[in-house]
Amino acid sequence: MANKEHLTYFKVENFKRFDSLELTDIGQFNLIVGDNNVGKTSVLEALQVNIESGSETIFNYHKTIGLRGIDLNAKRKMDLNGNVTSVEYPTENYFDYLLKTRTKELAVTFRTTKYSHLEGLMDFPKERSESEFIFSKMRNTNITDSTATFQVKIVNAAREALINLHQDDLNNSYHNRYLPIVLFRPKNVGELFNDFQKSIGKSRKLRDEFIANLKFILPRIEEIQSLEIGGVDVLSVGLEGEDEFTPLNAFGEGTQRTFEILIEILKNKGKRLFIDEVDTGIHYSRLKSLLKSIVNLALINDVQLFMTTHSLECQQAFADVFEDPDMVQHQTTVRQFSLLEKPDGQVVASCRDFEQLNSALETGYDTRGGKQVW
User: Fold this and answer.
1) Which one has a higher pLDDT value, 92 or 279?
2) Domain assignments of the chain as residue spans, ordered by start
3) Could you say which DSSP state residue 58 is in?
4) pTM of the model as a whole
5) Which fold has domain 2-180+272-371?
């Protein structure tokens, strides 16, 4: 028997561009669609909650700021002896980038459901729980003062806690903090090699499973090894009929990104994984094969997936995966969320299950979200 815990409901208020955004009836496989700049990536960032800790959720949210390339680190000047002579803090801080309205609180509410699975039987709910975190900055201090701290109130299940934070606390938490997000830009070859070694290591079973899922994009792949190039270990691929191994980066961005996604699934066994613009670098003719490989590996490893796209072809391929005879039984786990922008700029999420998505695609209904006429 295996257990897995999934988010089944999520609501965030006053986060980035959202006044209030609610995702209901979340499944194991969730495709979030919408036009560019409607907030797809922000949804993935909002979902970076730690279900047990409001403090860790704060640090996760701060990490998302860094992932966007925003630097809030203090600039320190040192003398020749290595002593700090001055500290200059930025005029903006964490709350400037997370809150839509500075005078309002940031609130997240979510439900999780723990499932049990018996071989030969469908998953069934075992345990449900609901959590809510409300964050508000209690002291509006001048963060350019290196001695200043600010308090954050965290409310959860009618309990309140105050934590004292300083800009450096948030910046220090950024380093070495891992978030299960695959960005649209691929990792460098060194990072990919390290992730592969940590996730698969010397396990022949995992390696064979991994290679099998790459057949759609590299049909002749037989083996994966490390290859030292310029003093850096990189992943290399052995192909049928070829004696020498080929560095992974020789196969293009789409292949590298596929490697990264599959490795991240293995890293997040029994957890959640978020993939931004899942179809980036993949030719439309290979989208179904990519998505089926992702879904199959996620099923084996009990991973809940949240993926974004603005492509109609990707939505069709996503639906087509679950039309295959070996995937029909998983149709009940499929959800599509269209992000719709109202005339006043507010964004709402419209949820479709598999049957509703399939029907919309068959009838030519526009499922891509974006600005709507209400």
Assistant:
1) 279
2) 2-180+272-371, 197-267
3) H
4) 0.88
5) Rossmann fold (3.40.50)
